[in-house]
Amino acid sequence: MSAQGAPHRSVRPDLKPLTLAVATALPLLFVPMHGHAQSPTPTQADEATGTGPVKSLGVVEIRASQPTSLPVQIPASVEGVDAGTIARTINATDSEDALKYLPSLLVRKRYIGDYNHAILSSRASGTGNSARSAVYGDGVLLSNFLGNGVGGLSFPPRWGLVTPEEIERVDVMYGPYSAAYPGNSVGAVVDYTTRMPTRFEAHAQVGWTHQPFKLYNTNTSYDTWQASAALGNQVGDAQWYLNVNRTDSEGQPLTFATRLVSSGTAGSAGTPVTGAVLDRDNQNRPWQIIGTGTQYHTVQDHLKFKLAYRLTPTLRAAYTFGLWQNTAEGYPASYLRDASGNTVSSGVVNIDGRSYGALTGGDFALTREKLTHTMHGLSLKSRTLGEFDWEAAASLYDYGRDQKRQNAASNTLATAHSGGAGTIADGAGTGWDNLALKGIWRPQGVGGAHIVEGGVQQERYQLSYKTANVTGNWLSDGAGAQTSDVGGETRLRSLWAQDVWSLAPDWKTVLGLRGERWQADQGRTLFLNGSSTDHAARQETHWSPKAALSWQAASDTVLKAAVGRALRMPTVAELYGATASTNAQFINDANLRPERSVTGELSLEQQLDDGSLRLTWFHESTRDAIYSQTLFDSAANRNISRVQNVGRVATQGVESVWYGQGIALRGLDLQASVTYADSLIKENAGFVSTAGDTLGKHQPNVARWRVTALASYRWNADWTSTLAVRHSGQQFRTLNNADVNGQTYQGVSPFTVADLRVRWQIDRELSAAFGIDNLMNQTYWNFHPYPQRSTSVQLKYDLR
């Protein structure tokens, strides 16, 4: 669809843009960069520690001495960055920032410490599909597969359980090509490996970020302070590491109170007000922006403790404890003023001779949140590098406290600051746990014809979410009458095996199979109005084959192909977690079918004199994709908007990636990536407004074009400067692509933003960094506005 919203003329794939994507990127062949996850040989440090990805015959081999979710042999495209690259080139205030310049990835981070909307998107999965990617930290699951996306409940990865300063490296595997992962790997698998010291070390860091923000009638500045400290040591066979972090963040306004001009009535009724801003909504309809809805002030504390002990020369035990707590306050503000200059936030108002429905606490909602989450990870790992090794790992993530308070719609902004009616939502008792047993068999020893991996896994997700009224003081009183209780449990038991087989000196294949038994039970959707349902238990069994083939066509050239089937099972919230019993933002469906995807890629990997090149064509066909849409309910004789299956979504595209070092100038590193994706809805019985209005339209939140480019220059041993550019092309938020205006609240806009970073190594232990994100101060949107120009300063001490 064009930028003006012209209809798509054909549902057939348009191959011209695919050719254009390659042709456009070809000039970048001469501007690659080092630090690539797929370096052809390990560094000496990697050989000594057993860490770091290694590319051989197009199959990435992971040799990690620390806990990691990645299998030993990965048959797919892999990218990554290490701690040194992050420190030199990225203004990293949260762990997800480490992914900022990796190909095809975008995290919908709206402000520093964004805990409820920062969702990862990948080649063929948008920022509303958090359940289509898997994020791990030291092998512990951080992705929140209790639900998918955002809405009444939000399910981004728990990024706060990893801080930027503790990251040793992060690797990303694109696609569901390893049998070691569930169907949630269909988009990407992200694995953070954090520090484990080999001698005593101490770290401390302080940072400040300043964002002047001007939009509609908001014109002010927001500041964020961060501080962290870490200690670690190795004593004999024991290693320990302790990291603490505090973030005190003020974000820009994220939501806005609005009134469509067409909803107003001409006349003199209501209080005459000024201050409203006339704009157009995402469908280009005139509307009035009458104030801000949510501006967060959040204070977050992070504590991570890791202990590892070598029980024998070949057996290692490790334990990880993580604590994350968050106190967040959401503030609204009315733009409206009466004739005396007083703020107006309630009652019927009159704007430019038209009266509009009464303003309520729903327009200007105050919120208070208190969350305390913990995670535990325990592993026991054999590493003999002989004929057989094994690993056992268990993890637990627990919502110890998860409470959100909000003033009621009947409680206006003028009175809500001091109390009045409201609601409490409580997610305590929610969480997930995982258990995995894994073996690696090398029947002919290291370097033999086969390396066989296999294992069994269990993943269990439990949702419990209760809401209740507060009739007295919503800020402090306990819960009153319960209004809803939704929850349930899903369980996934898996058996998998994968064989890396060297067919011939220049050929290698990876064959895998994953079997899964999925169960859903204890589902309940109960509401005060008498709408209550106890859902029947479900059970399904599925098999997902995987295959990859690589050919070392020349000493510096690898060709490879991969294909994999993945089933993304419905989450607990999609099955049971409604936010209302009638048409609302999110209504569950206990009979959802799993998403069934077949994904493939063809890649050329070329080592250059000063870098590397990768060209990848990818394709994905997904049946029964899960989205919220409308369908006619014959039993109720009306349209129902709810979570439903979309018949088929097809995506194909090209990803081009270059890395190089010192090509144009000694000390200059450059990297670039270009991704083109054509993602269309091919079949769908549901609709948004009218039957058939989604057919041939673009999948929501999947941009046609994504581009990253980064130049980093080492002036000398102490000074480094980096300039980076991120571009995302046109995309839509709705299934029928009716949101043709992306440059507004609730729109999704194209953007091109530049980031700057300068780092100074003051002495052996002390360093400082100065950065600017969104250098040109572009205003851009993904439903909410992204940050405007943000300046950051960091001071760091490292004793090693």
Automatic annotation (TrEMBL):
Pfam families named in the record: Plug, TonB_dep_Rec_b-barrel
Keyword annotations from UniProtKB, A to Z: Cell outer membrane, Ion transport, Membrane, Receptor, Signal, TonB box, Transmembrane, Transmembrane beta strand, Transport
InterPro entries: Beta-barrel_TonB, Beta-barrel_TonB_sf, Plug_dom, Plug_dom_sf, TonB-dep_rcpt-like
Membrane disposition: Multi-pass membrane protein
Main location per the UniProt record: membrane
Compartments where located: Cell outer membrane
Ranges for domain TonB-dependent receptor-like beta-barrel: 338-775
Family named by the database record: Belongs to the TonB-dependent receptor family.
Name of this chain's protein: TonB-dependent receptor
Species this protein is from: Leptothrix discophora
